[in-house]
Amino acid sequence: MAYSGGLDTSVILRWLIEEYGCEVVAYCADVGQEEELAGLPEKARATGAVDCVIRDLKEEFVSDYVFPAIQGNAVYEGTYLLGTALARPVIAKHQVEVAKETGCDAIAHGATGKGNDQVRFELTYRAKAPDLTVVAPWRTWDIRSRTDCIEYAKKHKIPVQATAAKPYSIDRNLLHISFEGGILEDPWKAPEEAMFILTSSPEAAPDYSTEIIISFEKGIPVAIDGEKMTGANLLAHLNKIAGQNGVGRVDMVETRFVGIRSRGVYETPGGTLLLVAHRAVESITLDREVMHERDRLSPRFAELIYNGFWFSPEINFLKAAITESQKNVTGDARLKLYKGNILVTGRRSPVSLYSEDLSTFEDDGDAYNQGDATGFIRLQGLRL
């Protein structure tokens, strides 16, 4: 079973044992939860698991999932940077591998019957191991709420962080932290400042600006201020810089795949910087028509990621097109961060399409014949 050590999966682990009398292998993917993994194997075994397998997927998550999304400028409903949606397919992919390696005949997850994650997990299971039985307790058991989960945990002496007073659902990885539930279910109620983990409030951010340079090769971030880094290290570094400057908070009401409107609060500091920097480098390196075609694909790309179709033929098609579009997207973007704001202050590239000779307001010599525009405009106006 996919196990995080949180309220839901801790209860599910024990419930599977009680309900089926089976042996349960707990599986956890390290996609950047940090302190949440401390003591996890001991906690799983104390709750009844016969084993707990943890896989370090941070580099794979960033290089194979986050960075392709950045290349495609994938943003769901204009706001959500897909932090949870991008992590689910890599988690589920390795869950299937662990299930096969340990001889399991069924695979379980803790996603509810109302949400997106059940689809994201199970579509990956179908793509990778359609022979495995899927157990989704939230769709079958008598527990109806997180309050019920808390009571079940107390009954079976399962230690959990959530309480009836603060029943947030928190999901964390290297790209973001998401918050749902509790007081956040009222879309008019502002989130509590104490809730945030990765970001300072803009008011509490430094009274001076921070400037950084992000470098890209073929649309992939590779360096910060000239220092090359692995994907996971680069994103972690940007999270720290952006978070200190109050960058990366999102509060939105989104449309889940099943059709329910859901309020989510997200912290995505590093990813927010990458999207802005990527656009800046594209502005001087990406062919106009290619950019416009890619931009038409971006909302569909984001929708497919959000809905759980990472391992689908159609997303493979889109990823191939997006990768092709990025062949020339190499260069640097300089950003200034100040109290929640991001300003692009410079962009450069060894393969830039920008020509100062053509764009200048000064005398350009023979670089451009302005008289040619007369016929161009007349032809454009024929149909009008």
Question: Mind explaining what this structure looks like?
Answer:
Helix content is 40%, strand content 18%. The chain has twelve helices and 13 strands. The strands form four sheets. The chain has a five-stranded antiparallel sheet with strand order 9-8-7-12-13. A four-stranded antiparallel sheet has the order 5-6-11-10, with no helix packed on it. Strand 12 (331-338) and strand 13 form a beta hairpin. Helix 3 crosses helix 7. It is elongated, with a radius of gyration of 24 Å.
Salient structural properties:
single chain, elongated, 2 domains, 384 residues, four-stranded antiparallel sheet, Argininosuccinate synthetase, chain A, domain 2, alpha+beta
How many whole angstroms does the radius of gyration measure? 24 Å
Relative helix content: 40-55%
Any idea how many domains? 2
The helix-and-strand class reads alpha+beta
Number of discrete helical segments: 12
Question: Sheet bearing the most strands, described?
Answer: 5 strands, antiparallel
- Low-pLDDT runs of 5+ residues are none
Average pLDDT reading:
94
CATH topology of the largest domain: Argininosuccinate synthetase, chain A, domain 2
CATH class term of the largest domain: Alpha Beta
DSSP strand (E) fraction? 15-25%
Terminal CA distance: 63 Å
The CATH architecture of the largest domain can be named as Alpha-Beta Complex
- With strands numbered from the N-terminus, the spatial order across the biggest sheet is 9-8-7-12-13
The counted number of beta strands is 13
So, the CATH homologous superfamily of the largest domain? Argininosuccinate synthetase, chain A, domain 2
The ordered string of helix (H) and strand (E) elements is HEHEHHEHEHEEEEEHEEHHHEEHH
Based on CA inertia axes, which overall geometry fits?
elongated
